[in-house]
Fold these 2 entries.
Entry 1:
Amino acid sequence: MKKFPKDFLWGASTSAYQFEGGINEGGKVPSIMDNKEGHPKYGKDITGFKDASHHYYKWKEDISLMAEMGFKSYRFSISWPRIIKNLEGDVNMDGIKFYDDLLDELKKYGIEPIVTMFHFDYPDFVSEIGGIQNARFSNLFEIYSKVLFEYFGDKVNYWLTINELNIMVLSSSAIGTGDDVSKWQVMHNLNVAQAKAIRLCRKMLPKAKIGPAPNIAVTYAKTCDPTDYTAKLNLDQIRNWVYLDIVCRGSYSKNFLNFVKASGENFVMTEEEKVILNDSKPDFIAFNYYSTATVSMTKSEDIQKDKADQQKGIVIPGFAKMVPNEFLEKTQFGWEIDPIGFRNTLRDVYDRYQLPIMITENGIGARDVLNEDGTIHDDYRIEYYKKHIEQMSLAIQDGVDVIGYMPWSAIDLVSTHEGISKRYGFVYVDRDEFDLKDMNRYKKDSFFWYKELIKNNGENI
Ligand code: BG6
């Protein structure tokens, strides 16, 4: 039995603000990410996103490296502030040209573009109206979506609406998209923005496919104490399902609405929005997977802690408390590694929604070492990928319809909150936190391994 379908989309991912640099080039207006230096929460000596990996200048070389690895697809994000200049929606033609050229280059190599419309970096001018918390956010996103569909509709077959909408809600302070005072209003506004983009895509580009791209990972109950299972159901609800239910089923579950009410929180939803939400189903589900969560029911002494980052945190009294999983090893950066959880998650998502699935992130952040001879021996990354791809193939044998795998990241880029020292790429970018060096690209051992894997369509795993 073949492990992967014939046209399986092997590739990898990046995002504009973490990869491009060139923040003042080509008419780009400021984004909320441009001037972040270090991370206020951790106080670490880490770089911000001003320079990133200089992909803005080296995009041709970068795409040729992807082509050399044999990529069938490349998932990248378009930077909203490179495209739209102001609240009125004026278009920056230099920004259009940048991505148009990039799309042509991908086409030259036969690489399918998978385009994320918004990956954390909204333009500063959106902050002038209060950012995502203002219901007008969805109108601005719709204006931007229209421009993307108009200019790139003939070159892009797959659109991803919003990267990790759920993480923007649950860990907004860690990734720097603002505080989460009315997080459910933020969630709802993002859901409406997403729905408007899907609706518009249907109208303008009937042949294109569009889907959401949250970060999904199943939750385990720490013990078979029934209250731990209730905690698992609870966390699954606010960590995973609410964001997929709204887009795939068109409404919020009663369970979720009751939870919001019981927490003394609220969000405003108009009748018109209800109609839009119910009228904008996706063609596929894309999701990012790094690690599972394990929970137990809280005890009276537990308190709500700060959310540490995308994979840690969350303590909600009487609801759930995330705890370490003793069966799992961790990365150098403390993220649990759970390849079997990947198969479990794929099965859960598919059982629930029965839509094709595309994996748009998965990977290991590590302190890679560039040797004097230009080699980087990242055997731990190969090991990580082997195990995850093996589990993905088992999920496919279980019956899950997986159409692509685009791990994080194609080439080194700056982590959301841990600088350039936390590297994910198949290609090493020679720069340090504050010394930009020459930004030269070096192929890691995983580069050659992934190239071979793609050549064999994963049969040799
Ligand atoms: C996801 C994001 O949360 O995880 C990426 O979509 C991010 O933008 C990736 O880089 C890895 O997280 P981090 O914090 O290690 O960069």
Entry 2:
Amino acid sequence: MVKIAPSILAADLMDMKNEIKLVDANGADYIHIDVMDGHYVNNIAFGPNMVKSMRPHTKKILDVHLMISPVKKFVDEFIAAGADIISFHPDADKNSRNILNQIKSANCKAGIAIHPKVSINEIVSFLDLIDIVIVMTVVPGFGGQKFMQSEVNKIIELSKIRKKRNLSYEIEIDGGINSETGKICKDANADVLVAGSYIFSSGKENYKKMIDSLR
Ligand code: DX5
Ligand code: ZN
């Protein structure tokens, strides 16, 4: 069954502890934390302190999505804060293999995220090293954008490569996910769906219904 990763970018920031507990209790598999630096993307959001503050309040997988450049010098802080998965954009720093090894050697899962402008060819050499790949179906930076149908081919291609090369990375889809676009991704063999506004804008009493509707 597909895993669901609510993105706290769309959560009620003044009620974060409760938001985390609610999505935890209502079936979230991962909790997706977007980190933005105002440089790699045109927005600013969250840092290692957010991961550290959340850590005592849930046992769910903390899925950290770094949209920052450079990457390497910040990785250790996110590991120390309690991240379970750290993903980054390989076009945001020089030595991606080195960064993947840095993450994995700390017993953390490592992922790469694919900006819509980046092709599968540009990341194919990392696939043997990673635990997860994030296919971005919006231009990273903001929640609430429209799903880019043009990126679905990347999900299909990553699924084919995984089978052909006998690899085991998870395929996570991030951006514009609702029950309809989520179905498109599941049909393309996605393993994890990130959803921000679809879940958190639905009203706290509806989180279970929204999470269930993505399965
Ligand atoms: C966008 C972020 C997403 C965002 C998704 O740059 O990486 O994780 O929170 O938000 P929705 O689900 O609203 O498109
Ligand atoms: Zn994200």
